[in-house]
Design brief:
Helices cover 16% and strands 37% of the residues. It has 599 residues and is of the alpha+beta class. A hairpin with a 2-residue loop joins strand 8 and strand 9. The chain is globular.
Length: 599
């Protein structure tokens, strides 16, 4: 497919067409014919969209829209220029859609509306698709996990903090980037501007200042009480009470700086680290489960005390116990913070922090060992919000604007000394009520009782991990359909390391047909090899449908059938690390029907 592009000013500045533009449309818009490979915006007369010389808030070359293999257009920001897409700062690789509004330079800068019109390709032929290559090695792929009950999985590679692009040198992105952008927009539409602005204004940068005056951004913090800000334990651990280095809390735009004078770290943070280290040496099943992989941090919350307490903003409202208890897969979430690692903003963020807002979904609520569990132990919120270094400690909030979690990390790997997201980008947050241990005298962490629970309840599950995951999935299905029983409709073993696997860029996948009926609730589990990553994606023909999931060791999805049809299920993995897997498909049947003997 191809699109003609129309640019219509929305005020704040004057635009004119550059040398490559077509004649103006009757309504004064600047129109570019379908198939144009790039559209450059700036004050330079050679630009495709030219801003007036007096609009100095716009750079000579500010940004461009470039055409992807799918025909869609995406943004490339030149340097540190400010480009906002529908009110949210954009990063290179974000796809644009019909009706999007872009603003340049700042909140008072010129803005314009983009209109895309699909047209037929010349000669009536569709644009050639990106070609799959059947090879057994390649770069690590980056896959943003989609969650149960939302849109489909998108594959990407992130230079940390930048959205939705991979292998720029070979053509940027294809339709997967467009799909990922749709996810963000779908979620963002449910959050009102007032909520976003309020949370964004409360997102402060945590900065460490060396003896030489140099500054490095460590993470994000937000007001939680008088003279108090919340963040992660691993951020607060940088506080040095001896004063050899200063830990600072900086307001957005560097309008005010506080000095950290004390730090409280949840006592469970060190207790869990000690437990994992000890059991990793002594328990082979536990050790094998996380061999070579980072484990999500636990109890990773902290509170910093700062000077100039009266200058802090109002504390953010925390979610009620009822809201936290009801939080589940598919819930819409967002955070405000500083995901700058690996981006051009990383160099300037410590001196001029500008928070970003990112959107996604909750995928599951588990314990710190990634098991479904008693709600009293389910403190880890697994989610799909894009995040990286600098975002640690950010407030994760729901559509009501109340904080439900503290963003704490994601799954990354080391690439020649730099951190990059792993094949399945799964990010984590700590349930916000962990902060009660700081503010509620009755909430006392019992290290001995907690360690006993881990030894007697959690560790045995690692010896029967696959059975436990399948049982948990069946139990969740029956909980979603009271009075019904989970029944297996398909079980098979397969591998991504055989001739039936299809290579597509940096991923491998296999397809399986799944028959569904309208109104029935289904759960699917693909269990791979311990510690290895898998993803699931459902298709109706060639079109991705609204269900996908991914994870470490296993992936699962849950959905309700819409029609009597056969869907195509793709099991995806890394091309340079193909895994064997077992696939389970379950549906919820009436208990009497499920128990009836077969004829």
């Amino acid at each position: 497919m191809d699109y003609s592009v129309s640019i219509e000013s929305q005020g704040g500045g004057r635009i004119s067409k550059g040398p490559e533009g077509s004649a103006p449309a009757p309504d004064g818009a600047i129109v570019f014919d379908a198939g144009k490979e790039e559209i450059v915006f700036g004050r330079e007369p050679a630009s495709d969209v030219v801003f007036a010389p007096e609009d100095r808030i716009v750079s000579r070359k500010h940004f461009r829209l470039y055409r992807q293999p799918s025909g869609h257009y995406a943004i490339e920001v030149f340097g540190d220029r400010y480009v906002a897409l529908n009110g949210t700062p954009a990063t290179s690789g974000e796809a644009v859609s019909d009706g999007d509004v872009i603003r340049l330079g700042g909140k008072d800068g010129p803005s314009f509306r983009i209109e895309l019109e699909q047209v037929a390709e010349m000669g009536g032929l569709e644009r050639t698709l990106t070609q799959a290559k059947v090879v057994r090695s390649g770069e690590q792929f980056r896959q943003l996990r989609r969650v149960v009950g939302s849109l489909a999985v998108a594959v990407l590679a992130i230079g940390v903090g930048s959205y939705f692009y991979y292998e720029q040198q070979s053509g940027r992105l294809d339709e997967i980037a467009t799909l990922q952008e749709a996810i963000g927009k779908k979620v963002a539409a449910s959050f009102d501007d007032e909520t976003i602005d309020r949370i964004q204004d409360a997102a402060y940068a945590v900065v460490i200042e060396g003896k030489d005056g140099s500054r490095t951004l460590l993470g994000t913090a937000w007001p939680v009480g008088e003279g108090l800000v919340a963040t992660n334990a691993h951020v607060a651990a940088k506080y040095d009470p001896r004063g050899a280095r200063k830990l600072l809390v900086v307001h957005p735009g560097n309008t005010l700086t506080h000095v950290v004078t004390d730090a409280w770290i949840h006592p469970g943070y060190a207790a869990l680290k000690d437990f994992r280290a000890r059991e990793g040496r002594e328990d082979p099943d536990f050790s094998a489960a996380f061999e070579g992989l980072p484990q999500p941090s636990g109890f990773d919350v902290a509170v910093l005390q700062v000077d100039n307490a009266d200058k802090l903003g109002a504390p953010l409202e925390l979610a009620s116990p009822e809201e936290i208890a009801e939080l589940g897969e598919g819930d819409l979430l967002a955070y405000a913070g500083y995901p700058v690692e690996g981006t051009t903003a990383q160099r300037t963020a410590a001196d001029n922090p500008e928070p970003l807002v990112k959107f996604g979904y909750a995928s599951s609520i588990t314990d710190f060992f990634l098991f479904d569990t008693d709600p009293r132990q389910a403190y880890l919120i697994r989610h799909s919000i894009p995040a990286t270094g600098g975002a640690s400690g950010s407030p994760i909030f729901n559509v009501n604007g109340r904080v439900v979690a503290v963003l704490s990390g994601g799954t990354v790997f080391d690439n020649d000394g730099s951190r990059q997201p792993s094949a399945v980008l799964e990010n984590f947050g700590q349930r916000v009520d962990l902060l009660n241990a700081r503010f509620d005298p009755s909430d006392v962490f019992d290290a001995e009782a907690t360690a006993t629970y881990w030894r007697t309840v959690v560790l045995p599950r690692f010896g029967r991990h696959r059975q436990q995951i399948v049982a948990d999935t069946a139990a969740a299905l029956e909980k979603a359909e009271p009075g019904k029983k989970a029944v297996e409709t398909l079980r098979l073993k397969a591998s991504l390391d055989d001739r039936d696997a299809v290579a597509a860029g940096p991923i491998l996948y296999r397809e399986h047909e799944i028959s569904v009926e309208p109104g029935k609730h289904y759960s699917i589990v693909a269990y791979g090899e311990v510690g290895r990553t898998l993803s699931l994606r459902l298709f109706r023909g060639d079109e991705a449908v609204d269900f996908a999931g991914s994870g470490t060791s296993f992936a699962n999805v849950s959905f309700v059938g819409e029609d009597a049809e056969t869907l195509s299920l793709r099991v995806l993995g890394e091309k340079n690390d193909p895994v064997d897997y077992e696939l389970f498909v379950m549906t919820a049947e009436d208990a009497a029907t499920a128990a009836a003997p077969a004829d």
